[in-house]
## 1
Amino acid sequence: METTYIKAINDALRIAMREDENVFLLGEDIGALGGAFKATEGLLDEFGSARVLDTPISESLIVGAAVGAAAVGLRPVAEMQFADFVSCGFDQVVNMAATLRYRHGGNAKCPMVVRCPSGSGVRGGLFHSQNPEAWFTRVPGLKVVAPATAFDAKGLLLSAIQDDDPVIYFEHKFLYRRVKEDVPEASYVVPIGKAALRMEGSDISFITYGSALYHCLDAAAELAKEGVTSEVLDLRTLLPLDRGAILATARKTGKVLIVHEDRLTGGIGGEVAAIIAEHAFEYLDAPVMRLGMRDTHNAFAGAMEEYILPSREKVLAAGRKLAGY
Amino acid sequence: MERDLELYHNLRLVREFEGRLSKMHHQGRIPGGVYSGLGQEALVVGSVYGLAREDFIFPLHRDLGAFLVKGVDPRLLMAQILGKKTGLSGGRDSFLHAGSLADGVFGATSMLASSLPVACGVALKFKMNGEPNVVLAFFGEGASSRGDVHEAMNFAGVQRLPVVFICENNFYAFSTPQPMEMAVEDVADRAAGYGFKGHVCNGNDLFAVMHEVGAAVELARRGGGPTLIECKTYRYSGHSEHDTATYRTKDELLEWESRDPIYMYEFYLQKKGHDMAALSAETGERVKATVDEAVKFAEDSPDPEGPEAMDGLYATQV
Ligand SMILES: Cc1ncc(C[n+]2csc(CCOP(=O)(O)OP(=O)(O)O)c2C)c(N)n1
């Protein structure tokens, strides 16, 4: 059935709650309002206010309570109204959730999900546009996913809910209603830790995730007209990275461009580039290239936002340069 | 201008500005979100009026009026809201995510109530240097659920800081009604736990706000420490202009509209013997002209250029 990315999230939540009564949701305005973006629309009606819990404006509490509930057998799915606000619950994510199992001698589980509506391109400005995934991708004990398609949005969320570790789930706001595709109605999972090859080719590789996937696919289609065939690898999971898939495409084409909307410096692209440099150096025909948001804040004004973000044109220009090596 | 008239002018200016934003938003002339403070004018005017330029305020998303009363140029504020180069943040962020330190207006982030600990830092400087200035920190009853509020109030109490915490209780945090936010009726009760006084006041009654905040400001200036003032009020619009606010009833809105802060104040002016019809028309024209000019200035202002997004990050380049 044709389903939007946001509807796929809603479907996944509903399925998970039907399948397992231990699954419950907590967050701000997720009940009657159905969430700021309507991700939880209709769930209060079906499951009641005990399982669709409207909380005060207390991100630290939302994450912390999820950790506690998860440790004793529930499967909470916490919603940040915007990913940007996860900073207010940061300690609970990176110290409490991430180390729970470790500091209990491996004898604890923390089956929880923190949903983070992230991303730019929606004129959100400094505090409603952030891509804070790299704050978390260096924290062992967490898993970090960032679906780009509606199919993955559903399958990765179901995976994340079933997973016994804390999963930070970045859902891209720009894609919510713009991405629409056939998604099975039934329950299914997309495995955490597995990248997806979206396009096969032999000349250059794009390694990407989230909204940047679409810039890469567009650029690859354009390059195809110029006789350059591309691989497009969608990472989908950012922690742990699918090193096998990264190295396979790097070794195949020898030319890699990493693209993400997150800031360039300290973004996951640096890690991907290092993996390639360490383990596929002999296969490379060009320097590993990266394209990310410029190293500044998520500026509001239209021209500024355009200037700092990756775009189809910027990816295409970088792709041409790479192909030219 | 006589105080009574100046207050009236301020109330009307804030309402005109807010009303214009709402209209412009519906006409698609405003990029980004608009969080209307319509209905809450007495609260911002009454608390900020009479502060010195050196005093600081920490307004939040619904406190546009506080900017105006504190002395921020309406033209610059409008340019800020339109994301223009001439705006307070030069287009780097929208709406009220900007300040004007020269006017004693500290810009907030979106992270609700994160500004309260910062307000304590400003107050700490006033205390350290023996400056007789005060800090007003605004926050919603919804934001009062954040830990930063607790940390700020606790510290302010310990240090007897010259800060007045102003809670705007409009009974809803986005769609969440107060009983889902807290198990008490009055946020002001919490002050006791921090070792200072908390007062509840009718936030739609200009004089009540001026009386309560004024006394707290005087106490703070004399070194008597912080106070928490809770102003009960109501926002007429939805949370943002996109929100149709179906979580509350029409009757509830009507009831609050019948307690409109400006009507109440006009009633007072009339009792004082002013010709209200004439005064209202004349004031209306003046504030309309001010806002017209602000809109013209802002809309005629250039948009920032893309590369300007890289400016303003560091005071010293390495
Ligand atoms: C830390 C944080 N969490 C969530 C939000 C999203 N948000 C913006 S305004 C708002 C409601 C605020 O309610 P309240 O503090 O009562 O102020 P009001 O809007 O009613 O004036 C929410 C949840 C935010 N801005 N910051």
## 2
Amino acid sequence: MYIYDEYDHAILKQRVAQFRDQTERYLEGSLSEQQFLPLRLQNGLYVQRLAPMLRINVPYGMLNTTQLRRLARIARDYDKGYCHVSTRQNIQYNWPALEQVPDILHELAEVEMHGTQSSGNCIRNITSDQFAGIAPDEIVDPRPYCEIIRQWSSFHPEFAFLPRKFKIAISGSESDRAAIAVHDIGLQLVKNDAGEIGFKVLVGGGLGRTPVIGSVIREFLPEAHILTYLEAILRVYNLHGRRDNKYKARIKILVRAMKPEVFAEEVEKEWAHLKDAPSTLRAEDITRAKGFFTEPAYEALDDSAAQTQLDNEKADNIAFSKWLERNVRAHRVPGYAAVTLSLKPTGIAPGDITDTQLETIAELADQYSFSEVRTTHEQNIVLADVKKSELFALWQAAKSAGFATPNIGTLTDIICCPGGDFCSLANAKSIPIAEAIQRQFSDLDYVYDLGELDLNISGCMNACGHHHVGHIGVLGVDKKGEEFYQVMLGGNAGNNASLAKVLGPAFDAEQMPAVVQNVVNVYLENRTEEELFIDTYNRIGISPFKERVYAKAS
Amino acid sequence: MQKLVKDGVIIENQWHIMPKPEADQSAEVPAGPTIVPLGVWLEQQDALQQRDDIGVWLDSDELAEQIGAQANKLPLIAVNFPGFMDGRAFSIARLLRERFGFTGELRAIGDFMRDQLCYLSRCGVNAFQFASDDVDLEQAKKSLDDFTEFYQAGVDQPLPLFRRRTA
Ligand code: HEM
Ligand code: SF4
């Protein structure tokens, strides 16, 4: 994991002091509401329906247990005892008092954390694969590059007042778990025929009210040039992105208006001036970054012995075997596995976590996983390096703490935004819909049999809940002051990224569990042995779903 | 006379900013040190080149390339902020310095705010003329030093931190 040196600490300290001064000037009245707005946003502070919301960056999802315990303490001392894991791997507090935010940021800076650029029209936290460094299908570990780009983008003087927010995601594996196609810039690490490392560069993806899949503007950018190339993209966007209409200000609109090929040419032209500047990475710069992401002290383990033991434990315990199947993933290193702790038990807002739960997770990580955890964009938490021989013990501990719901990747592992309960932009509530659907599908065996099925819910078209890329997407809409829900099918966030299609007219909240049930029934009746929901959908199309759902409804 | 911050010091403003002429107005450039709109300068370049007290201001939808290689013939170029959320001036300033080698006074004008001074100066702006007279310049110029260490290269520091760290 990256460790701050005196430079990082000095810069962050100045940032905390700067924001403390800005907050004081705002409270005493010398800084106007309007001027304070972008400044507080760039420190993570939103003002929403009930209270401010403070978003803390978790760079590419990595946290150590010292940080987890500090987050727990902040939840207890400054908030109502809980926080929220967001769909961009970040942590959000829902009830901090404005006057105390500088103190919170100070407490965070002590453990090398901050809210810098977690909101506002700037380059946001870089996101990546929660299984980086351990996934068997990894081509190149993305984390050193995430860190290099994090530093480059932090306090970047030229790009702090962009037309709109700007999100970068990096994937280093064959299977894309970072949703790079729906980011402003998506970077896929690749190796060319000569074995050299580089990036495939996508731009102009995004969700929100105009969902777009990103376009490839460069098939292979040698790793040394990543910063100057990013600088070229950002400069073209900063100068030419629309500023007259905030709904047309994202880079996806510019790329579409210019055509991706023309946009790519503009970037190449700009880059011709910047290429080989001092920001070009030398081999030793990359080596230094890689030095922070070395392997933990793995033991040489006998994988087959561990596997035999697991098989025995499995045979004796169906619940354990289900959990293994859904919540445990293969690890690159023999004898180890990666475990996802579910933050989605029924009845809790997806991604919500209390101070004591955070501390429990810290204990589990200390005991079983080298004192590190990762947050996921599906709003769960991963223990990445668990010995297979200790999985059973970990399962028991996780179960008694309530993190062992074996629903990872299933219908009840719902991605859901805060919605009308917390968010001032919402058209409709989203958390109660998630809960109602979880109750409808409370039979774990049934859910388990459905296999992989992403259900994503947003309370408005800003798409914080990624509804466009859910296999089933749900969008809250407002009709004459009443809350309704539009259902869409066929979205996909991974390698074959696609956007969901609207099923038809919207439903009211009470209808939603039955509607989802109908959709699921059509799948069950039509699927072949090996088909997942999305495969069946892609084969039979939307009509059978439409017929069923609306036949019953009318 | 209005004051401004230049090179970290508060000084008297010597320059008059000429507004963009309306469509039917004549674009007569007054005597005395004047910062003219880009459009006026482009139209009257031949005449204005005879004077050494002419600067040019760029609006946020204009491009550094429109002055380009001519930049160094000017004593002063200003970048305008129609609103403080409009961050194009940051890129324009940087291009004037880094691509077109401008070494004269680069002045921020319009509706920028104190909290942008540090980043603006990293982009090569060295003079700050606030639109409002109410701004306390002594206080405001403190923001120039909000940060004293930086990760990325800038006009002020061409080497990114990673090059200086491992040196
Ligand atoms: C409750 C306060 C919140 C407010 C006021 C808010 C506001 C917004 C707005 C206005 C957008 C649209 C921006 C655009 O499309 O240009 C947006 C997008 C987004 N929000 Fe939120 N949000 C909130 C909470 C959250 C939470 C809790 C999450 C994570 C669970 C989240 C994740 C996202 C994501 C991932 C996007 C990006 C969609 C895209 O790529 O365009 N937001 N948010
Ligand atoms: S999708 Fe809409 S309702 Fe949900 S958090 Fe985002 S802005 Fe709020």
